[in-house]
Amino acid sequence: MPIQLGDTAPDFTQESTAGCIRFHDWTGDSWVVLFSHPKDFTPVCTTELGALARLKPEFAKRNVKVIGLSVDGLSDHVSWSRDIEETQGTALNFPLLADADRKVSTLYGMIHPNADNTMTVRSVFVIGPDKKVKLMLTYPASTGRNFAELLRVIDSLQLTANFKVATPVDWNHGEDVIILPTVTNEEAQRLFHGGFTQITPYLRTTPQPNL
Ligand code: BEZ
After folding, report:
1. Are residues 35 and 129 in the same domain?
2. pLDDT tens sequence across 169-206
3. Cβ–ligand 1 contact at 81 (below 6 Å)
4. How many CA atoms lie within 13 A of 201 on its CB side?
């Protein structure tokens, strides 16, 4: 069964550049970004992993741990990480799972045989502190991801987990949000101290409530 939003993220034990990882223990109370990249010693992946390492403070600010994976072995991960440090100006600062036995990539459906049978696609799973899957993205090997977008959706996921709001198209942290249609106007008056604007009965906006 493919993983779907709201499912408990499957637990696993696997080797990594930071030692043996027991996933559910490792995640603790954090949010988690679990991502796959197709292959070590490849150019797009090199830029992606460098970018993620540079963004570590942004993930930390949001209580997010990052963990990567490919079906390469540990010794490849270790020697490739030296290239990443040299070419991207940042050392890897998160674990890379060495999934040579494909245990984790199979569990998470990260190999799409009709795209490529030998390597993982660019999958992203955002997992909440309750260990439920909150968001999934899948990119092909040829297209590097946009990690600013990943931070943007994490801001939305964390906000909407705590307030009765949703975020509109192209929303960014600090911008007005949408009040859930299930909230009455009376309740909205109590919940949103910044007041709200009613554009239609179902489209009401309010300043981001946790600022
Ligand atoms: C890359 O990371 O550059 C890459 C990896 C696999 C296939 C194509 C590109």
Report:
1. yes
2. 999 999 999 999 999 999 999 999 999 999 999 999 99
3. no
4. 2
